[in-house]
């Protein structure tokens, strides 16, 4: 019952957050200098009649509140509007480009979770020179921005060694995986370092707790203590970074997709901002907010499974 109540409450909060985000996203675009009409006219001087026709076609001559509620009503019916730049439905653009971005983010997320957790656990368990080496390596990874990693990986493995394609997405699922390998590594590098350090710190902290010391003193095998007591208890702390990891992946994918020429929504967002394509920018921004909230919900639901001491909802105190 607590699980159902918690889920319904979080869904209501997500709906309110999406509503607030939609207002901020819609309003922020119209606070930016310039207008879509400038792009449509390509800098040419236009007669007042031509300018009025463009503004009327895209409802730019209407009050802000009218435009916002019209857009909101279209969203409720699954209509994101029509792209000013590409002259097609934004929904079709998202359907064409979203799979590439989701696959790229999924590949990067797998790398972050697997490599980050393994490195963090090895550093905490081994200690000594192994710990120092991993700390130095992860420090370098954390200090390398995604776009710098993209340029370095592309120059070494694509241009010089010819091990991977320099860009694009290829044809078919297997080719897409091959083309997205380097972008996924560039996207994951910073977060691998961050997650490894968080995992190490959390495990070292648990290692110093009394119940771990008692278990080791009673002769419980060290491997069993590390797996059942230390690593599992540290996962609660690690899991709290899940939302930060996904949000960073979604933000950095704009830079990585542009560097590798991946035709995803990140590259589409950059081009749409440049051309003042309001409907496309608003749709992509709102989609990213929705994905981020969905991941946060999944993290909150997974927390009690990792740590049973965490309740989904606060218990009422007895009368």
From TrEMBL:
Protein family according to the UniProt entry: Belongs to the binding-protein-dependent transport system permease family.
Protein's cellular compartments: Cell membrane
Keyword hit for Transport: yes
Cell cycle among keywords: no
Main localization category: membrane
Gene3D superfamilies the record matches: MetI-like (1.10.3720.10)
TM stretches of this protein: 12-32, 102-122, 134-157, 177-196, 234-260, 280-299
Keywords of the record: Cell membrane, Membrane, Transmembrane, Transmembrane helix, Transport
Domain of life per record: Bacteria
Residue ranges of every copy of the ABC transmembrane type-1 domain listed in the record: 98-299
The protein's name: ABC transporter permease
Entry membrane topology: Multi-pass membrane protein
Residue stretches in coiled coil: none
């Amino acid at each position: 019952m607590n699980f159902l109540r918690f889920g319904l409450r979080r869904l209501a909060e997500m709906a309110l957050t999406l509503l607030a985000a939609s207002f901020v996203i819609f309003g922020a675009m119209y606070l930016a200098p310039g207008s879509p009409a400038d792009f449509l006219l390509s800098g040419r001087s236009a007669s007042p009649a031509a300018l009025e026709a463009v503004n009327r076609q895209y409802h730019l001559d209407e009050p802000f509140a009218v435009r916002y509620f019209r857009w909101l009503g279209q969203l409720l019916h699954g209509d994101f509007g029509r792209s000013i730049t590409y002259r097609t439905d934004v929904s079709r653009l998202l359907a064409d480009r979203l799979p590439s971005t989701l696959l790229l983010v999924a590949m990067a997320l797998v790398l972050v979770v697997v490599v980050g957790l393994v490195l963090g656990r090895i550093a905490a368990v081994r200690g000594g020179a192994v710990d120092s080496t991993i700390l130095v390596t992860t420090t370098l990874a954390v200090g390398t921005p995604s776009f710098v990693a993209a340029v370095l990986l592309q120059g070494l493995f694509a241009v010089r060694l010819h091990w991977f394609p320099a860009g694009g997405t290829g044809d078919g699922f297997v080719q897409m995986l091959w083309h997205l390998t380097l972008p996924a590594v560039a996207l994951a590098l910073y977060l691998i370092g961050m997650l490894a350090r968080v995992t190490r710190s959390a495990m070292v902290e648990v290692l110093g707790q009394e119940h771990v010391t008692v278990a080791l003193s009673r002769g419980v095998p060290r491997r069993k203590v590390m797996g059942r007591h230390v690593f599992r208890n540290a996962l609660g702390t690690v899991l709290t970074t899940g939302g930060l990891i996904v949000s960073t992946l979604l933000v950095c994918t704009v830079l990585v997709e542009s560097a590798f020429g991946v035709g995803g929504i990140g590259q589409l967002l950059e081009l749409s901002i440049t051309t003042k394509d309001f409907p496309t920018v608003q749709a992509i921004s709102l989609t990213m907010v929705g994905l981020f909230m969905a991941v946060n919900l999944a993290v909150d639901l997974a927390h009690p499974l990792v740590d049973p001491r965490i309740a989904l909802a606060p218990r009422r105190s007895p009368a």
